[in-house]
Amino acid sequence: MAWVYLTVAGLFEIGWAIGLKYSDGFSRPVPSILTVAAMVMSVWLLSIAMKTIPVGTAYAVWTGIGAVGVAVLGMVLFGESREMVRLVCLFLIIAGILGLKLVS
What string of DSSP letters covers the chain? Predict the structure, then answer.
C-alpha cells in the first residue's frame, strides 16, 4: 500500500507544480488554494509512504514522478521543447524509478 501512497503523492506533486504556473505567483485565488492543497496532500502522502519505504527511495521516486509528469505536461500544456534528447532523459528517469521499485 505504501507504493500506492507514494505514487499518488507524486501525482499531487505534479498537480502543485503545474498549479504554481496557473496561480500566477499566488495572485489568483482559486488556483492558489488548489496548489496549496495539492502541496499538503503530496507531502502528507509522502510521509505515510516513508513509514515503510526507505527515505532515499521514497524521495527519489516522488521527485522522479513529479519531474517526469511536469515535463510532459509542460510539453502538452505550455508548448515546451519535445526534442529527442529531452525525451530520452525523461525515459531514463522513468527507468530509474522502476529500478528503485524493483530493488526495494
Answer: -HHHHHHHHHHHHHHHHHHHHHHTTTTSHHHHHHHHHHHHHHHHHHHHHTTTS-HHHHHHHHHHHHHHHHHHHHHHHH-----HHHHHHHHHHHHHHHHHHHH-
CA separation, residue 61 to residues 7, 25, 57, 69, 97 (Å): 8, 27, 6, 12, 5
Q: Shortest CA distance to 66 belongs to which of 97, 32, 104?
A: 97
Domain boundaries, the chain: 2-103
Residue 83 has φ and ψ, to the nearest 5°, of -60, 150
C-alpha cell at 20: 504554481
Give, as one character, the DSSP assignment of residue 25.
Answer: T
Q: What is the pTM of this model?
A: 0.92
Convert the pLDDT of each residue in 83-104 to its tens digit: 999 999 999 999 999 999 999 8
3-state secondary structure of 50: coil
